[in-house]
Amino acid sequence: MSITFIIGGARSGKSTFAELKAKEYSEKVLYLATAVVTDQAMADRVKKHREQRPASWHTLEMYSDFRTLVGKKEFINSEAILLDCITTMIGNFMVDSKMNFDTCSVEEVNLLEEKITREVMELINVCNENNKKLIIVSNETGMGVVPPYYMGNYFRDISGRINNKIGQKSDYMYFIFSGIPVKLKHKGEMIKWPQDF
């Protein structure tokens, strides 16, 4: 079992790189799609993603209840699991919560973040227990302008902290810049800065 974490900005080529990695790992791939189609733009994105994936791959549309994977034939028959993506999953949980992020308490937001974190760790544990190679895709949300509204701020902060946790757990980590992958972590070993940096 190994965890490969692929992170980058919007339209940086994360998904394409993740799919190439999955093909490297195995022909038996399960794609966990976290996107929920809410408008035409999202429908178009989902369609494009489907078209670029091999027809032989299994796909499950889910972003929670990962413990149930152990009973699904798509999971049992796969060697590599690709989840795309964490930030979409976080957004889904935030919408599902029906919270008013302008007026809710910080404690409520913290409880929501704990719930999302548990789901992510559950996925990691399920893959580890069943000897699956796991690839996780996420957006780096902390390098842009600070959102001017509460929900955006909470989304950015939750995403950043969860990305940190995945990064710590990962064996391999890549940052994608304009379609170019930069390796940050290899077999759990962080890439070190030069001593005189």
What does this structure look like?
The protein is α/β, with parallel strands linked by helices and 197 residues long. It has a single domain (8-189), classed as P-loop containing nucleotide triphosphate hydrolases (Rossmann fold, 3-Layer(aba) Sandwich). The chain is built from 6 helices and 8 strands; from the N terminus they run βαβαβαβααβαβββ. An 8-stranded mixed beta sheet has the order 3-2-4-5-1-6-7-8, with helices on both faces. A hairpin with a 2-residue loop joins β7 and β8 (189-190). The model has no long low-confidence stretch (mean pLDDT 91).
List the helices and strands and how they pair.
Elements: E1 2-8, H1 14-25, E2 29-33, H2 40-52, E3 58-61, H3 73-76, E4 80-84, H4 86-96, H5 106-129, E5 133-139, H6 150-169, E6 172-177, E7 180-186, E8 189-190
Parallel strand pairs: 1-5, 1-6, 2-3, 2-4, 4-5
Antiparallel strand pairs: 6-7, 7-8
